[in-house]
Amino acid sequence: MRIVCVSTPGGRELFASDLGHGEDPHVAVWQHGLSLTRPLYASRDGEEIVLTVQGAPHSHGQVRLRRPRGLDPDLQTDPDEVPVVRQRVAAYGIITSSRGLLATQFSDRTHVPGQWGLPGGGVDPGEEPARTVVREAWEETGQQVELGELVAVQSDHWIGRAPNGVLEDFHAVRLVYSGHCPDPIDPVVHDVGGTTAAAQWVPTDSWRRVWWTAGARSLLDKNL
C-alpha cells in the first residue's frame, strides 16, 4: 500500500510513501510532521492500493513512533519456526438501512468465533477497495448496498497463527466506508463455510448490546 497525504481534498501533495510492514497509517503521517485529519479515498493503481489522506502540521516534531506488535497469548512455536510476513488490505462498510445496522458474525474458522463485526473482507487482486465492500456485503449478508465516503482507516500488527495453522507476522490494514442499503431484506449468508457464520440487522438505538469485536466497537463509537 502507498499513502499520499494532501493539504486539502484536491490540494497540493504534502508527501507520498510506501506503508511499511507493521506501520500504522496514522503513525506514518505523524512521522512526516503531520496529523492525519481524515481519510479521503482509496483506489487501485495497477498492483498497488493508494490511500489518499488529508493532513495538517503538528507541533511535536518528527518523532519516530511505532505501535507495538501484538502476540497471541496462547501462541506456541517451534524453536526454528519463522513467521511468514503478510500485509493484508481489507475493506469494510458501516451499512445502515431502515432496519438498522448490518452486522456479520464470525465463524469458528476465525480467532473470534461468535463475535460480531462489519461486512467486508480482503481486497482481491485487481479489485477497487469500494467494490470489495459491495461484493462482500452480498456474499456475507445477501444485501445490495451503496457506499458513501471512506470514513476510517485501522491497522493492527501481530504474530499468531492463521486459521490454516501457518505462523504469520501479520499486518492488517482496514479501509472503512459508510454505506446504505436502500432495500433491506432478511440477511442470508451466501458464502457458506467461510468466515461468516450469520448476519443480522441490529437496531441502531441498541447496537451496543451486541458482542462486537474491539475493532468494530471502536469504529462504531466514532462513526455511528
UniProtKB/TrEMBL annotation:
Would the keyword Transmembrane be found if you checked this record's keyword annotation? Answer: no
User: Which CDD domains does the record associate with it?
Assistant: NUDIX_Hydrolase
Give the Nudix hydrolase domain ranges. 85-224
**Short name of any one Pfam family annotated for the protein:** NUDIX
Q: Which domain of life is it from?
A: Bacteria
Q: Keywords of this protein's UniProt record, alphabetized?
A: Hydrolase
Q: Which GO terms describe its molecular function?
A: hydrolase activity
Tell me its family: Belongs to the Nudix hydrolase family.
Matching entries from PANTHER family are given as:
ADP-RIBOSE PYROPHOSPHATASE (PTHR43736), DIHYDRONEOPTERIN TRIPHOSPHATE DIPHOSPHATASE (PTHR43736:SF1)
State the name under which the record lists this protein.
DNA mismatch repair protein MutT
